[in-house]
Specification:
Layout: H1 35-40, H2 45-56, H3 64-70, H4 72-100, H5 107-115, H6 117-149, H7 156-175, H8 178-203, H9 221-231, H10 248-277, H11 289-298, H12 300-334, H13 353-366, H14 372-399, H15 413-432, H16 436-462, H17 473-486
Helix pairs in contact: 2-8, 2-10, 2-12, 3-4, 3-9, 4-10, 4-15, 5-6, 5-14, 6-7, 6-12, 6-13, 6-14, 6-16, 7-12, 7-13, 8-10, 8-12, 11-12, 12-13, 14-15, 14-16
Length: 489
């Protein structure tokens, strides 16, 4: 299988890369003929910050088990230290590779560029399955929160209708374009974070620092580390939409740095306020306890606001996850890893409508399942993808030192290796404590991904399906050159 050169080469001439002996093209960020729609739907800095925020966190909802499993002391230390050993390295890698290859597909393109199409396809399987399962939790979570206010939606047909309505409405929002999704994320982010800002301010005179030193009597380290991991990962998800970002060479690094700071403080400050202001034993800190803590600190009005904020956060989380997953499929189709139909864009909004519909249907189907082990397997697959991503980053630094990088991690090769080894060690730890069921489910998904790759290769060889071509290669080369000039490279 022969394809053209990726973005970032010194010239648009074909160039062979390692891995399957293939060559590859970085796809165009927009389809010709939709220039006005594409320009209108480009992501600027502020919406991108909030999209990243919702890809990762959406607020401190879900951080409570860290207190429950180990106590306030370890929870505060975890959310203080973990961003430095996990969030910042992943963000730096994402910033460098997204600006070097500013096209849709993100980490799939990077792996394809470094190791060939098979590895790129496998990366796509791991990350897409992980993202789809992660996204499937949010419609059900939204229904659960609504059931606290409207008990009728707790089960039966009303619950099904709520989940379907949630899914359809947000799928249509994504259909209207990333600019709309991004500014909606800004509004949702402000609304979901505001009650925690108020709670933190009201709690100040009630805080007693000695409460922060409390630890749980029976510590559950597996739950503790999984909670930290779950609440501070997916920083690279936004890379799948790099082709839709205005001036990515400057916008991506700034957006990622800002989002890391906002997300970290969004966890740490409410935890400090709630654990310091009330005398609640660690075992009380189950999911949703922030609302109870707010009620104790300020009254029932703030408790209800945080519960409403949880619904708004679920909306933002699902919308951001759907966007990144859909644009990943688009990027894989542009690379020729999936049929060309996944790269079709809507005539008015220039969005990948087929990829949006397919991802929406997959997540809708999963929303009705009870799948704790599958969720754990999704984390395992995500970990595999991140290990491959760090390897890709190091390999491209060694193999392609001349590649244009509008943003470059300010470390030499030894420093970058150390930077990647620290979070990689944590990934291996998280994978090692998974059970045999997780290993089995992950192996099945991986085998399915390998099967999909060879099936697509078979269909392409026999001409059964229409796959992407290199028609957009010159357009992407010109985009890269323009972005490099804009960034002063």
């Amino acid at each position: 299988m022969t394809r053209e050169v990726h973005l970032g080469d010194a010239s648009p001439k074909p160039k062979t890369v390692d891995g399957d002996g293939a060559t590859a093209v970085l796809p165009p960020p927009a389809v010709a003929g939709h220039g006005k729609a594409a320009a209108r739907n480009k992501l600027s800095l502020v919406p991108l910050i909030f999209l990243i925020f919702f890809e990762v966190a959406g607020g401190p909802y879900g951080a409570e088990p860290a207190v429950q499993s180990a106590g306030p002391l370890f929870a505060l230390l975890g959310f203080l230290i973990f961003p430095f050993i996990w969030a910042i390295p992943e963000s730096l890698v994402t910033a460098e590779l997204s600006t070097a290859m500013p096209g849709n597909g993100g980490f799939v393109v990077w792996a394809d560029r470094a190791f060939g199409p098979f590895t790129g396809s496998l990366m796509g399987t791991w990350k897409y399955v992980s993202g789809a399962i992660n996204g499937a939790a949010f419609p059900a979570l939204c229904a659960d929160y609504l059931a606290r206010v409207v008990p009728a939606v707790a089960d039966g047909g009303a619950r099904v209708a709520t989940i379907v309505t949630f899914n359809v409405a947000l799928s249509f929002l994504n259909y209207t374009g990333l600019s709309v999704v991004g500014w909606s994320a800004v509004a949702l982010g402000i609304a979901s974070l505001s009650p925690f800002v108020l709670m933190s301010g009201i709690a100040i005179p009630k805080i007693r620092p000695h409460r922060w030193r409390v630890t749980a009597a029976d510590k559950d380290w597996k739950l503790f580390f999984n909670t930290l991991f779950w609440n501070l990962n997916y920083w690279d998800s936004v890379s799948t939409m790099a082709g839709e970002v205005e001036n990515p060479g400057k916008t991506f690094p700034t957006a990622l740095l800002s989002s890391v700071a906002m997300t970290s403080l969004g966890y740490l400050l409410p935890l400090m306020a709630a654990t310091g202001a009330i005398d609640a034993p660690p075992e009380n800190w189950g999911n949703g306890f922030f609302a109870d803590a707010a009620g104790t600190i300020a009254g029932s009005w703030l408790k209800y606001w945080i519960e409403v904020g949880a619904v708004l956060s679920s909306i933002g989380l699902y919308s951001a996850t759907l966007s990144s997953a859909a644009f990943q499929l688009l990027g894989m189709a542009d690379l020729g890893l999936l049929p060309r139909v996944f790269a079709l864009r809507a005539p008015i909004f220039n969005t990948p409508w087929v990829s949006i519909v397919v991802t929406s249907l997959i997540t809708l189907g999963m929303s009705f399942l009870s799948f704790n082990n599958i969720v754990a397997a999704a984390n395992f697959l995500y970990s595999l993808g991140m290990l491959l991503e760090f390897a890709t980053f190091i390999w491209l630094r060694i193999k392609r030192p001349e590649m244009a990088r509008p943003y470059r991690v300010p470390l030499g090769l030894p420093g970058n290796i150390v930077m990647c080894l620290v979070p990689s060690g944590f990934l291996v730890f998280v994978m090692a404590i998974a059970g045999w069921k997780v290993y089995a489910i992950s192996a099945i998904f991986t085998a399915a991904g390998v099967g999909v790759y060879y099936f697509m290769k078979f269909c392409k060889a026999r001409g059964f399906l229409n796959f992407g071509t290199v028609d957009g290669e010159e357009m992407m080369y010109e985009r890269h050159q323009q972005e490099s000039r804009n960034d002063g490279v």
